[in-house]
Structures are given as structure tokens and as C-alpha cells.
Design a protein that fits this description.
Layout: E1 4-5, E2 10-11, E3 18-24, E4 40-41, H1 58-71, E5 77-90, H2 101-105, E6 127-132, E7 150-156, H3 171-185, E8 191-199, E9 202-209, E10 216-225, E11 236-244, E12 247-255, H4 263-276, E13 277-279, E14 291-293, E15 313-319, H5 328-336, H6 340-345, H7 348-354
Parallel strand pairs: 5-7, 12-15
Antiparallel strand pairs: 1-2, 3-5, 4-5, 6-15, 7-9, 8-9, 10-11, 11-12, 13-14
Protein name: Inositol
GO molecular function, one term: phosphatidylinositol-4,5-bisphosphate 5-phosphatase activity
GO biological process, one term: phosphatidylinositol dephosphorylation
């Protein structure tokens, strides 16, 4: 999704809930997820064939086992359907003094979409984008009647972005939002907060239903500032990765630069987040759970580090601030005629994605609502 502006206002992308099928045993712009599965792996069956004589090297043996495991996946995998909610909300430095339940109420029985897992709250200045890796094993499934299995919330401007508050994180400003979301979720089940990380005004929260908590492993959290001097946290992204059953998921909440003239700056901030958010590669035993973040441009700690796209599923969302490149009068005429395709064709984010300037690995669900002026 994309938060953009016409000549005089903001666009808001919102509301396309969906479910994901995860194998029991990681949006959003997306590759097709409808033909893939996520799996939970039980012990491998005995592979009776011997490794050919010429394939005795460690690499060859590993490739052979991987091929056999993929070929016989149905013998040792179990599919579990899980539903994700992803929401983004620029709160303009306001506390959560209002009822948050409408943010989730309309999404308890969502309509599945074909390719994309994403959602956003009505009336928010934000965007949700997701990506499904070619290796992903996720499919759209029917929704349950609760809030979902995994809920991912991105907030922007939880604190004022002026003076020292533009560069120093005040976690006391983010905690009320976490507490309010937790209280809301607890009215309809038991949820565990997996991730709470704030970078100045950017706050990422990830909750999982309690009965899935023991299936979550290898949580890593990091952030990258792209604001003041190219590193300030007034703009940038907070990222978290985790393994749910046998699926690796990465979530990135960001806040990019505003204003019509800053299109190239937004594209550059996206590229900086993609390059500088790095995670420690996991060994076979799941060790080394420490994230590696390149805090300064041009410094990358380890060439073997895990990147954002090295996951099965990626959710990329936030206040992206891309605009609709039309005059306000023309936008109003399109809104009156409900001509959403024409508006989308002049969306800066769509244009940049199609030309490969930013977000090119991602895809987004169709837009069926007006921009917010």
C-alpha cells in the first residue's frame, strides 16, 4: 500500500484482508502465492536410493537430498492454514485515546485475495506492501472468525518529529499504543507480543495467537534510519524476522519522506532500507540470532548476511508517502466517477515499481477506493 498525495492532499491505501496457508512441522507487492504451500516438517523419511558414485562431495550429497526431500514432500509435511492481519497507521503524535476496535472489526471475516496478503486500516495515511519469495510455500485460504493468527501493526509518528524528538527515541510514547492493541486483542482470544521495537516515531508490533507461540523461532529485530544526515530515525524502517513453523517471515515498517518533490528521495530511502537491514544467517542449529544492521551508508558487515528478500514471505508497509501525480481537480473528477484504475495508473509508487526504481520485487492488491484528499 502506499500513502500518497494529490496536489493538495493525502491518498490512503486500505483494506484487503487475506489468509495464508502455512505448512505445519515467510506483502505487499507479491509473487503469486496461490500455488504454493508453507510446510511444517517432521523427520525426513528414509531415502532408499543410494547417492550416485560421482556425487560424493558434500555439496552434491546435499543437493541430492534436497531434491529427494522436495520430491517426497507430501510424505513428511503437514499443511496448516493461518490468517495474517497487517495494518499501518500514522497517528500524528496523538495518544490512543479513542476506541481501537473499529480498526479490526471489519477484518474478522475478510475476503481472500488471489495473490497478496495485505491489509490496512480505513482512514490511515499509510501503505502495506508484501512480497512472497519464489521459494515461499503460502496460499490464500478461507478466513476464520477471530482476529487472526498473526497480527502485524506498523505505526508512524508515535512521537513528535521536531527538535531533539526527531532523532531520539522516546519509548514511553510507543508503549500506550502497544498496551491499547494488546488490550483490544485480548477481548477476542489470547495473543502474545513477539516484537515491540521503536525507532523514533516508527513502531513495529507483532502479535501471535498464544496457541502458535511455541511454533515461533529465530526472532531477530533491527532498524535503519534514513532521515537526518541519511541516518536519523525520523525516517527509515524497523524490521523483524521470525520463523513460524517452517516458514520464514520478514516484516518491515517504514516512514519515507513526504512532499511532492521528494520522489527520488523516497526511492533512495527504500533502497537504503533494503541494503542496510541485515540479519545474521542462521546455522542448522538456529544459532546466531543477533541482527546485523549497517547503521551508516556504505558499510555492510557480512557478505553472507540474510537480507530482507531472503525470506519466504515479506510484508513491507508504512507511510510510504508516494503521491498521485495528477492535479487535484482531475483527482476529484476521477473520484466522482469511481475511476480507480486511472488514479492508480498515475500513482508514483506504481510508476516507480513498473520502471524498476523502487519496490520492483513486490506487487500490490487492486485498489477499489478513493484517495484521501
Amino acid at each position: 500500500m502506499n500513502g500518497g498525495r494529490t496536489g493538495s492532499g493525502e491518498t490512503v491505501r486500505q483494506r484487503v484482508p487475506a489468509t495464508a496457508r502455512l505448512a505445519a512441522g515467510s506483502t505487499s507487492l507479491s509473487w503469486s502465492a496461490s500455488t504454493q504451500r508453507s510446510q511444517v516438517v517432521t523427520p525426513l523419511p528414509v531415502i532408499s536410493q543410494s547417492v550416485p558414485e560421482l556425487d560424493r562431495s558434500t555439496l552434491a550429497r546435499r543437493e541430492y537430498v534436497n531434491r529427494e526431500a522436495e520430491r517426497r514432500a507430501a510424505e513428511y509435511t503437514r499443511v496448516r492454514e493461518l490468517r495474517f492481519f497487517v495494518g499501518t497507521f500514522n497517528v500524528n503524535a496523538k495518544p490512543p485515546v479513542f476506541d481501537l476496535s473499529p480498526l479490526l472489526r471489519d477484518h474478522k471475516t475478510p475476503t481472500p485475495t488471489q495473490d497478496v496478503l495485505w491489509d490496512s486500516w480505513a482512514g490511515t495515511n499509510g501503505a502495506t506492501l508484501s512480497n512472497v519469495n519464489a521459494r515461499a510455500k503460502t496460499t490464500i485460504a478461507e478466513a476464520s472468525t477471530d482476529f487472526g493468527d498473526v497480527l502485524i501493526f506498523g505505526f508512524q509518528e508515535v512521537q513528535k518529529l521536531s527538535g531533539t524528538a526527531a532523532v531520539i527515541t522516546d519509548e514511553s510514547q510507543g508503549r500506550p499504543w502497544r498496551d491499547s492493541v494488546q488490550a483490544l486483542l485480548d477481548t477476542n482470544g489470547s495473543y502474545v507480543c513477539l516484537v515491540q521495537r521503536q525507532l523514533v516515531g516508527i513502531l513495529l508490533l507483532i502479535f501471535v495467537r498464544a496457541d502458535h507461540a511455541n511454533a515461533v523461532h529465530n526472532i531477530q529485530i533491527t532498524s535503519a534510519g534514513t532521515g537526518i544526515a541519511g541516518v536519523g530515525g525520523n525516517k527509515g524502517g524497523v524490521a523483524a524476522r521470525f520463523q513460524l513453523y517452517d516458514t520464514n517471515i520478514c516484516c518491515v515498517c517504514c516512514h519515507l519522506s513526504a512532499h511532492e518533490q521528494n520522489l527520488e528521495k523516497r526511492n533512495g530511502e527504500y533502497r537504503a532500507i533494503m541494503e542496510r537491514v541485515l540479519f545474521t544467517p542462521l546455522g542448522d542449529d538456529g544459532a546466531n540470532p543477533t541482527p546485523l544492521v549497517s547503521s551508516y551508508p556504505g558499510t555492510y558487515p557480512l557478505p553472507q548476511a540474510t537480507t530482507i528478500l531472503d525470506h519466504d514471505v515479506v510484508f513491507f508497509f508504512g507511510d510510504l508517502n508516494y503521491r498521485v501525480a495528477l492535479r487535484s481537480e482531475e483527482v476529484l473528477r476521477c473520484i466522482e466517477a469511481a475511476d480507480w484504475p486511472y488514479l492508480a495508473s498515475h500513482d508514483q509508487l506504481n510508476s516507480c515499481r513498473s520502471m524498476g526504481f523502487a519496490f520492483e520485487p513486490f506487487s500490490e492488491a487492486p485498489l477499489h477506493f478513493a484517495p484521501d484528499l
